[in-house]
Amino acid sequence: MPRDEAGILSEIKRDYILNKLKEGKRGDGRLTTEFREISIQQNYVPRAAGSAVVKLGKTKVIAGVKIESGEPFPDTPNLGVLTTNVELLPMAFPTFEAGPPNENSIEIARVVDRGIRESKMIDLENLVIEAGKKVWIVFVDINILDYDGNLIDACTLAVLSALKSAIVPGSKEGGKDFMLPIRNLPVSVTMVKIGDNILCDPDLEEEQLSSARITVSTTEDGHLRAMQKGDSGFFTIEDVRKAIKMSSDMGKQIREKYFQ
Amino acid sequence: MPRDEAGILSEIKRDYILNKLKEGKRGDGRLTTEFREISIQQNYVPRAAGSAVVKLGKTKVIAGVKIESGEPFPDTPNLGVLTTNVELLPMAFPTFEAGPPNENSIEIARVVDRGIRESKMIDLENLVIEAGKKVWIVFVDINILDYDGNLIDACTLAVLSALKSAIVPGSKEGGKDFMLPIRNLPVSVTMVKIGDNILCDPDLEEEQLSSARITVSTTEDGHLRAMQKGDSGFFTIEDVRKAIKMSSDMGKQIREKYFQ
Amino acid sequence: MPRDEAGILSEIKRDYILNKLKEGKRGDGRLTTEFREISIQQNYVPRAAGSAVVKLGKTKVIAGVKIESGEPFPDTPNLGVLTTNVELLPMAFPTFEAGPPNENSIEIARVVDRGIRESKMIDLENLVIEAGKKVWIVFVDINILDYDGNLIDACTLAVLSALKSAIVPGSKEGGKDFMLPIRNLPVSVTMVKIGDNILCDPDLEEEQLSSARITVSTTEDGHLRAMQKGDSGFFTIEDVRKAIKMSSDMGKQIREKYFQ
Amino acid sequence: MGTASDIKLIDEKGIRIDGRSLSELRPIKIETDVLERADGSAYIEWGGNKIMVAVYGPREAYPKHTQDIDKAVIKARYNMAAFSVDERKRPGPDRRSVEISKVISEALQCAIIVEQFPRAQIDVYIEVLQADAGTRIAGLTAASVAVAAAGIPMRDLVVGCTAGKVDGKIVLDLGKEEDNFGQADLPMGILAKSGKIVLMQMDGDLTAEEFDEATTMIYDATKRINDIQREALAGKYRALAMERGGE
Amino acid sequence: MGTASDIKLIDEKGIRIDGRSLSELRPIKIETDVLERADGSAYIEWGGNKIMVAVYGPREAYPKHTQDIDKAVIKARYNMAAFSVDERKRPGPDRRSVEISKVISEALQCAIIVEQFPRAQIDVYIEVLQADAGTRIAGLTAASVAVAAAGIPMRDLVVGCTAGKVDGKIVLDLGKEEDNFGQADLPMGILAKSGKIVLMQMDGDLTAEEFDEATTMIYDATKRINDIQREALAGKYRALAMERGGE
Amino acid sequence: MGTASDIKLIDEKGIRIDGRSLSELRPIKIETDVLERADGSAYIEWGGNKIMVAVYGPREAYPKHTQDIDKAVIKARYNMAAFSVDERKRPGPDRRSVEISKVISEALQCAIIVEQFPRAQIDVYIEVLQADAGTRIAGLTAASVAVAAAGIPMRDLVVGCTAGKVDGKIVLDLGKEEDNFGQADLPMGILAKSGKIVLMQMDGDLTAEEFDEATTMIYDATKRINDIQREALAGKYRALAMERGGE
Prior knowledge:
The complex is a heterohexamer, with 3 copies of chain A and 3 copies of chain D.
Chain A: H1 11-22, E1 38-42, E2 50-56, E3 59-70, E4 81-88, H2 103-118, E5 128-130, E6 134-146, H3 151-164, E7 167-168, E8 178-179, E9 187-194, E10 197-200, H4 204-209, E11 212-218, E12 224-230, H5 237-258
Parallel strand pairs in A: 4-6
Antiparallel strand pairs in A: 1-2, 2-3, 3-6, 5-6, 7-8, 9-10, 9-11, 11-12
Chain D: E1 28-32, E2 40-46, E3 49-60, E4 73-80, H1 95-111, E5 120-130, H2 135-149, E6 158-166, E7 169-172, H3 176-181, E8 184-191, E9 197-206, H4 208-246
Parallel strand pairs in D: 4-5
Antiparallel strand pairs in D: 1-2, 2-3, 3-5, 6-7, 6-8, 8-9
Helix pairs in contact in D: 1-2, 2-4
């Protein structure tokens, strides 16, 4: 992930955050297990099949879902198709550049996609129009509007919200429109390691101070559905166990608060 | 549009042109409403369905038309297809570079295309082979060979000439070859603003001195079919009215002289 | 072709090689008509339809063949399709860069392809599944693993070996698997000119010292099937006749030694 | 302009398909400072259009060969979100976006006092989140506000507005069906105070008289749109003043 | 993870479809110095995987703006040969390759003493010649050996290994069918001595308990794999010593 | 070479399908100074081929890393217009164009006194407006004239010419059908005075004896083509002299 405008956090800011952490506190006063404020605006783009704008602290993303008919993959003729794309819009950060997806946007898209896909959130079996020939393709496009850390979770929340209210345009294929069939709600929780601390939902400054990142996606049953370690630092196995626990707890809270 | 080799017109040249303009004259002695000499060589490339080389002063372009069968656009199943492409060949100017179309060549192609398309010059309704499935696709490709200003008008003239003599290879689809059905003759007139003067058919030096560019395309009935303001200067509404009048007058003259 | 790491051969090395050549000897003791040691490992990648790793001195390449069904070219509806691609992997040399094929890899691929194609080595007539609709497409992909000169011949040898053992997966199209039908064995011999000498199978240092390159491909009957002059030097017509003779002789030896 | 159609777009009383009169604008709402990271930002809703604009700069122009020693270069990038239109649009610029980015850049170049920032560039990112006819002029209108909100000195605000011909009548601010099935489209960008034209495109079929009628309608609307722009900026400065007052 | 299937992947005796026990690795073979031109190289066969790795560097990072004034930047490039998979793969990076290149670069960054080479880059080219499940961890395992063979100072070798869930059971080192039809996949990269985790991805369905079981299995295998790595490097140094001895 | 065919390309009297004898060239016409902007230019009609060539330079090579401190670099770009061939060709370079650009660049490099212009590049743009077999050698022939017309010092003019095998006979300068249905194609680039070979490609089926016959035919034609080149350049200098005389 890009550093800030100057490429480095100021010494003073760095020291302040690290000193606070010694006391078990974060720069903005949060607990290590605490998310920033989340706000979700569903159906922001009525023209899309489903959509949502999510603010996670000062990070802001929009997800839009389009559902169109098309050919299934040859090796899964009886399943609908899900594709996920993330655009790091140059609008969102001074050093983001327009252009094809880079390794950062591809990683985010793939981690978000994995959480959705592996949880079997979308009932792809019920998105077949004509077996082997025609299925519904669910295009999920996520645009980053404002970047202040933890894009993976912001994107996951936006996708969940967009998919939950998405409508399949069945009438275009001689049937009826119907709600996109949803089974599970995978919530991702991303944490970073700063010193020996594991902090969830890092903001940009914390991302810059951290040595490594880990994302854990869980479903209602508490099962792990996807994980991703990022950045060039390391985790111990104890760190990972702690992260799994944190994700499971926070995932439950988020699911209850925002998706009931 | 690119500046000249040095990137700037010499002071002396600039002063000369500006002084002349104060007397209502142009650097090369033309009236403000006067085009440079136009020469048109039709059917330059017999292998194409239609073609023409146009010289407009020292500007030289070639247009070639290919007509092939293909699928219609889904939203216009009963219309043939027109596509227009412009290549600013590196041959034409020291700073032109090979590569995919840039914003300049795209703008030229789209303005030329708009004039042709909006005038309904080509009778696309009569280019259907099998409704909804197979239509004639008219590929218009324009290559800039030598650049000395006013590419839009040079390209439009070349396209008009190439289309007027183009033959649809109906025999390849079990019918007979026939002339491409043409209804109107949209002529574009491009003007620039230097000081308070509006000059038509600018050469490269005038383009470099000008603050803004305007193209107006009209048909035989004197109606406006397409307009485009270019460059970072401005026009007043009176300027635009003057430009419309000039385009209408010059368009008529060009139509009579070159397309009767 | 790229120069060595420093971009230039050391003076000393250069003088050594040139002095040796005056005595009719090469830097590594070979005759001018002598190839470096050739080793061929066939079926290196069992997952491919055919494959081979070839070492030619310190140059190392791998060729893999995939055979899949697809559409024939419109102008050859009754022929299978052959496509040849070469990747100059960044692994192979300090200055090779990842990315789409450049003029060097395209030239190598096209010269190798021409030798195979023009000799009619593969019996493309017998690769038709359904005339005009479905044929076997033979994908030949060659990756350069280690570069020490004379890629064209190394690649040709690898392709010959890979094709000779390739199996067409006929069972996927309702028939039986069968050996790819092979008729001829075109062997390419590449030579360079250093001073007035023509040396075959140049290593990297000889390539760097040479002024021009020539490749001659011949079949069992001694006929010429493909030739390519490369680099910015010249050959006299006598040089070329000498090269043709050398290619014919060496081609015969290689064919006998490695492809009986 | 679009395909012919039997749809009647204006009824005998001169009421348009969405209930508007001939010279009526769709509802317009502008907000500033909607993004945290950008140097300036604005959000516009214009009819069903939803467009976000961010401004970065002036900052050193990059790559270097794009620098102008006399003035700042304006690099506007108009972009449509994949989900903003009826059929999913593949991400990345198409030819239409490239052209629109160019004419918007040129329009802003004329409004900004670029001479104050030699060798600099000012990036204006226009993201169409939902498209509903007239995105380029709505985007330009918002872009102008976002530039002002970034504190970049301007000669004047640019107002974007469209007129067109529908069922043979000149109307203001084409809606989606009017855009698809109308007979002419005339998007313009106008400097609010001076009335100078900094963007103009047109396609379809207009007589010179119809052009005059259409531009008169646009100039008239310019004042109304500019009021909304200035109100949005005033809101920003009121908010700033209150913050300061509270200190 | 893959599609559901009726194939039975583990029999009643706990024997897997390729004859292995639950915690058994596929055969692994590593060689060093398989390429002439590279600064270091390694070749690994792991089950049916055949992967070649070349290392170039440390050399000055290029382009300049990618330089880090404090340390070397690791640029790993994972690439599959067109013929390495069942259906011909078009040459060039796809999204999957880009992600794998990123996580492998990050894993190596942690193992190499990058602080010794400010402004430098180390290129690690991983070419998959034949793919047979687990290419990323096999590639990482070989890459670590190739870096060491290039004489680049490392804190520790990185060992790659996968565990997963198949027919409801946790198993080590998924084979091709297990990868296609299994229920979970957990590839990890671990520093051999310290046990630190430098690469971890997971997809499928695991409980926290199953995760513990899987990681225990992986840690256990790490030692065995690291022995093979060290043996390959020892072979190299024995060979070097013999050469020197012969002088 | 092309597909087999039943078309008889040479009749019993040795007359070819377009009426030529075996060693007869198609009509060739060369003009210089056909473009205003370029530093040198030429236009060639050779049979149905219509090709325009522009030369720019010597100018500083860009980007800098392409500079050669000892000599100028020749960058020829062979390009076919979309409408130049039977089926519309998509604009931009394909693999064939890339290869032809390379061999033409190399051929010209040998003819131009590149040592006089260290660090420079000379761009040679070859645009095929209509293609009719033999575009590369016609392009090379014209390129050589355009370079000379630009006043760039040359060792020698390069003459391009093709021979081939048709219906079992060696013939000069293949026409379109001969190219499509013949048995061998041998395009060459030859320095006019010295006879040195600077471009040579071949495909099809030739014995060594047939190769000798073909090259003899080409060398013979070289003189005739070179006369046309020199006449075109002489025309230019006559014109210049007349201009001066008129002063």
